[in-house]
Every structure is written in C-alpha cells, then in structure tokens.
Amino acid sequence: GAGVSQSPRYKVAKRGQDVALRCDPISGHVSLFWYQQALGQGPEFLTYFQNEAQLDKSGLPSDRFFAERPEGSVSTLKIQRTQQEDSAVYLCASNPSSGWGEETQYFGPGTRLLVL
Amino acid sequence: AQKITQTQPGMFVQEKEAVTLDCTYDTSDQSYGLFWYKQPSSGEMIFLIYQGSYDEQNATEGRYSLNFQKARKSANLVISASQLGDSAMYFCAMRVLSSGSARQLTFGSGTQLTVLP
To answer: Distance of CA B69 to CAs A16, A77, B40, B56, Å?
Structure first.
C-alpha cells in the first residue's frame, strides 16, 4: 500500500501568515507523530495522536502551533502568525499500533517550510 | 530524559568497503529500542534497522548490522559493501518502551555519509 504522504512538499510564507500542513498516514495506522527538523539537525518531537486523541503535545514550541486529527486518519499541523524561526522541515510519521514494544515509525517525505 | 550522541558529522567511505557509524545513548530506563534511519537528499526518513535492549543478538538487515554494546551504551551501524546509493544522512534514534513513557523517538544530530567511487 501507499506510504505516508504529506502536502504541500514545499511552502513559502511571509512572516505573519498562517499555514496548514497536511499528513496522510498509512491506512489503518493508529499512532501519528509530528516532528520538526531544522537544517542540519535531527528531527525533534512536536506532538502525538492515538486515533483522534492528542495524547502528547509537549513538543509544540508555542501556542501558535496547533495540530488536529479529527477522524483519526488525516492530520493537519497549523502554524499561526509564522515567524522566521519556524522555517524547517515538518515530518509526519505513523505506526500501526497503540501498544508497547517494537514500534517502527514510518515517515513521510516532509514539508519544507520557508518563512520570509 | 533520553539523549543520543552521534560524534561524526561527516564520513567518507570507498565504494564496496564497510563503514561504521557511531551512536551512543543515555537513558536510565532498562527497556528501550534503538533505531537507525537513512535520510537521502529527498528528505524522507527511511527505516533501516531496530535493536531492542533485551535482544541478545545484534540485529542484521541485509547489508546493515547493528553493533550493540549495552554496557557501553553504544549502538553503532555497520554498512557492508558500500554502494553509491548509500550516500545520505544517517540518524540514530531511541525510544523508551516501558509503560507510561513517551512514545516519540529521540534523534541524534546525524552523520553525513559520502560513498566515493
């Protein structure tokens, strides 16, 4: 089947604009994660969903960041009033279970956000 | 809190030779998983190999093997018979597996591998 998809792949925003980034996880995957990857760095956790429930949002850097997954499948990461420091690659990952043990996360191609 | 350290920002290897990418980790938990991902210039993170903290044997997946030394808290990735297509950024990551722990992966800063023809 299809892997994790993300759209748009590239987004250029003017400082102060709102942006919405979409993630389509692998069909049937219960868990969904958002990560932020700055240039030359490893990804850093933003938030985690189990089905439609947002169980962990401890990594969101400010209240300008908001994520939702209303029907337990597609997820949207919204950034309000974008700032230059928001420029990064936003990665979405999913895995099939909500249980413990080995849980390989499968990543999408990411959305590269550039805020001017 | 967990921490992953990758001390090699860049590595070069001749085609067809083996290369080892270093990874050390820090956690106080006894049950955890270690992962290696490959990130080509296209940006997608590709899962390569997994090692559980209680696995007695080192993990292997084709040309990839994980040299797991629990006492040293190291989980080095060995790529045998390097190919030009192996040129990419490589990330070591971990997550704690005990009940109640966070689900997310903690990543290192990565190693840029370049395979020379």
So the answer is: 48, 38, 27, 10
Q: Give per-residue pLDDT as tens, A33-86.
A: 999 999 989 999 999 999 999 999 999 999 999 999 999 999 999 999 999 999
In angstroms, the separation between the Cα of residue B106 and the nearest Cα of chain A is: 7
Does A42 reach chain B within 8 Å, measured CB to CB?
A: yes
Decide: helix, strand or coil at residue B77.
strand
- Cβ-based neighbour number of residue B37 at 10 Å: 26
The CA distance from B77 to B34, in Å, is 11
Nearest CA among A62, A58, A68, A115 for reference residue A92: A68
Asked if A31 lies within 8 A of B103 by C-beta distance, the reply is: yes
CA distance, residue A42 to nearest chain B CA (Å) = 5
